[in-house]
């Protein structure tokens, strides 16, 4: 039986060494290469043609999410398994949306990581229990009005709730006064409030700011 050709992409040398050492003793896995960042991972994928890429997320030059997008844009059949320490929404959902076939945490046992590699290689999708719980919570969480705010609008709301004027918000966030006014107007509309006081109360009640 052919071995699963594995490419390890992680910016920590000791992590790469540990993973490579363990995977190399598996009878059905062959580590064909390592890369310290997403750009190098992309280039090595082109030459090494691995079956599975074990991809970290936070790296210099090109992070794991962007590297996943770049690789899959050229090779949509490529199987990428995310291995990371991060479980927040800003990492989990973009990685899965980018096309990763699995998402597991570095706190997993080495044997669990090897099993995940095998499953991804065979065409399965694999998620750690923590990621499954995160997805479940996201699907079942009540939609709130603030979910419709853009990232910048949420930032403006958080500053507005501290009592700053539009000009002070503009100065703090390094944007124009006109832009602040537009964001504030959008915030009022999206939150169904009439003024800054109501917006501030809403932000505090929904724990969007520390007050």
From TrEMBL:
<dbReference type="InterPro" id="IPR001789">
    <property type="entry name" value="Sig_transdc_resp-reg_receiver"/>
</dbReference>
<dbReference type="InterPro" id="IPR011006">
    <property type="entry name" value="CheY-like_superfamily"/>
</dbReference>
<dbReference type="Pfam" id="PF00072">
    <property type="entry name" value="Response_reg"/>
</dbReference>
<protein>
    <submittedName>
        <fullName>Two-component system response regulator</fullName>
    </submittedName>
</protein>
<keyword id="KW-0805">Transcription regulation</keyword>
<feature type="modified residue" description="4-aspartylphosphate">
    <location>
        <position position="56"/>
    </location>
</feature>
<keyword id="KW-0804">Transcription</keyword>
<dbReference type="InterPro" id="IPR016032">
    <property type="entry name" value="Sig_transdc_resp-reg_C-effctor"/>
</dbReference>
<dbReference type="GO" id="GO:0006355">
    <property type="term" value="P:regulation of DNA-templated transcription"/>
</dbReference>
<dbReference type="InterPro" id="IPR058245">
    <property type="entry name" value="NreC/VraR/RcsB-like_REC"/>
</dbReference>
<keyword id="KW-0597">Phosphoprotein</keyword>
<dbReference type="InterPro" id="IPR000792">
    <property type="entry name" value="Tscrpt_reg_LuxR_C"/>
</dbReference>
<dbReference type="InterPro" id="IPR039420">
    <property type="entry name" value="WalR-like"/>
</dbReference>
<dbReference type="GO" id="GO:0000160">
    <property type="term" value="P:phosphorelay signal transduction system"/>
</dbReference>
<dbReference type="GO" id="GO:0003677">
    <property type="term" value="F:DNA binding"/>
</dbReference>
<feature type="domain" description="HTH luxR-type">
    <location>
        <begin position="142"/>
        <end position="207"/>
    </location>
</feature>
<keyword id="KW-0238">DNA-binding</keyword>
<feature type="domain" description="Response regulatory">
    <location>
        <begin position="5"/>
        <end position="121"/>
    </location>
</feature>
<dbReference type="Pfam" id="PF00196">
    <property type="entry name" value="GerE"/>
</dbReference>
């Amino acid at each position: 039986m052919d071995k699963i050709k594995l490419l390890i992409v992680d910016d920590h040398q000791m992590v790469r060494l540990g993973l490579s050492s363990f995977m190399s003793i598996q009878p059905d896995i062959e580590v064909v290469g390592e890369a310290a960042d997403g750009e190098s991972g992309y280039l090595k994928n082109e030459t090494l043609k691995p079956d599975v890429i074990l991809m970290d997320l936070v790296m210099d030059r090109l992070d794991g999410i962007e590297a996943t997008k770049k690789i899959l844009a050229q090779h949509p059949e490529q199987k990428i398994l995310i291995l990371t320490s991060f479980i927040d929404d800003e990492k989990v959902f973009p990685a899965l949306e980018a096309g990763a076939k699995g998402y597991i945490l570095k706190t997993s046992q080495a044997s669990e990581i090897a099993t995940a590699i095998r499953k991804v290689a065979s065409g399965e999708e694999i998620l750690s229990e923590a990621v499954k719980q995160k997805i479940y919570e996201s699907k079942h969480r009540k939609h709130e009005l603030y979910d419709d705010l853009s990232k910048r609008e949420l930032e403006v709301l958080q500053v507005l709730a501290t009592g700053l004027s539009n000009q002070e918000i503009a100065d703090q966030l390094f944007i124009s006064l006109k832009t602040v006014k537009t964001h504030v107007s959008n915030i009022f509309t999206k939150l169904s409030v009439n003024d800054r006081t109501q917006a501030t109360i809403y932000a505090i009640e929904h724990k969007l700011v520390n007050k």
